[in-house]
Amino acid sequence: MKNRFLVRSFFVVAILVLLSSFFYLPYYVSKPGMAKELEPIIEVDNASQSEGTFMLTTVRMGKANIYAYLTAKLSKYQKIHPVEEIRREDETDKEYNLRQLHLMDSSKSAAIEVAYQHANIPIHYEYKGVYVLQVMEGMPAEGAIELGDRIIEVDGQKFDSSTEFIDIISKKKKGEKAVLTYERDKDIKEVELTLKVLPQTGKAGVGITLVDDKEIEVEPKVEIDSSEIGGPSAGFMFSLEIYDQLIEEDLTKGYRIAGTGTIAPEGTVGRIGGVEQKVVAADKAGADIFFAPNEAGNKDSNYLAAIATAKDIKTNMKIIPIDTFDEAVDYLLSLDNK
Questions:
Q1: What does the DSSP assignment read for 71-94?
Q2: Which residues are listed as membrane-spanning (predicted)?
Q3: DSSP reduced 3-state for 289
Q4: What is the pLDDT of residues 215-250, one digit of tens each?
Q5: DSSP element (H, E) containing 302
Q6: Is residue 161 among the annotated active site residues?
Q7: Active-site option among 109, 233, 239, 301
């Protein structure tokens, strides 16, 4: 009799678990993803070889069913996100995925530009627009401008690159207004913003990081097969791998080097989401070093979150704060060979 009860209970629980997998909640769940070696997916013609490896780190993201939601509640490095935190209110799954892939394409372009510039190799490109790569918390653009928006004009003045945008804004002072004309989902809109001082530069701005939408032509040629990886957070690590293949010296020095961060065309490394989960992924992959965006010493920086996670999981991996591409290269060049 007891055995029958246990068998029935087992089947009831199994059926409930199965049903819970088909019932989705208005949340997403994120968890540690993978640390993927970059050499197999980035190919520069006649590239030099390295003893070590650079790795991008990812976060796995998916809609939350009941089972996933409860599991995330009990897991330290799984996080639950309201839908509006991940996706715009009127955005479909397909539109969200396309936006993420566009941000990835933009980050690849910026990475190529940074790497080739630092290798003193000429770059030729055709500008097609300027897209928002990042919106800073607490700054005027927050809540008005979104990732993926294409900025067309400032105060009715057209421009061809992010550099020209910065030049126009930099002529203004704190408290002055700027009217941004932008394109979102094929609709043209305007918003008036009051400038604030940017903590990173001390200059007035609206608090957005822009990336040029352009086709880049370089020699030697480079190909990046990012497959279905979306978002801009691999840009910084892309730039290091490309640069390492362009120069004769082995930048890796034999180490397994992971990291994360956006990359702007001038070489600034920017904040990303899920850094704690990426530290966990890098540690599981056996990384020796993890680069984390320092955000100019912000008290809520990715770097400090990465340090806390590394201490919590008791990893031997070194967590290195990075603000620019140059800082990362200088650090790697200073290392002894492993």
A1: HHHH-TT-EEEEHHHHS-TT--HH
A2: 6-29
A3: strand
A4: 889 999 999 998 767 788 999 999 999 999 999 999
A5: helix 302-313
A6: no
A7: 233
> Is 31 a known active-site residue?
no
pTM: 0.74
**Closest by alpha carbon to 244, among 253, 233, 232?**
253
- Amino acid at position 154, single letter: V
> Does residue 134 sit in the same domain as residue 164?
yes
pLDDT at 4: 56
3-state secondary structure of 19: helix
Domain span holding position 172: 124-214
Domain end residue (candidates: 214, 244, 267): 214
325-334 and 235-246 helices cross at what angle (nearest 10)?
50
* Boundary-marking domain end, from 194, 214, 234: 214
Of 181, 331, 163, give the one whose Cα is nearest residue 259: 331
Cα–chain center distance at 303? 14
C-alpha to C-alpha distance for 13 and 97, rounded to whole angstroms: 34
**DSSP calls for 127-150:** EEEEEEEEE-TTSTTTTTS-TT-E
Q: Are residues 207 and 253 in the same domain?
A: no
Q: Give tens-digit pLDDT for 120-151.
A: 999 997 777 788 877 888 899 999 998 788 89
Q: Which of 79, 108, 214, 278 is catalytic?
A: 278
Contact 64, 80 (CB under 8 A): yes
- Residue 167 CB neighbours (<10 A): 12
Instruction: Give the number of domains in the chain.
Output: 2
Going from the C-alpha of 288 to that of each of 106, 233, 257, 285, 316, the distances in angstroms are 28, 20, 6, 9, 7
Residue 221 bridge partners (DSSP): none
d(CA 166, CA 161): 9
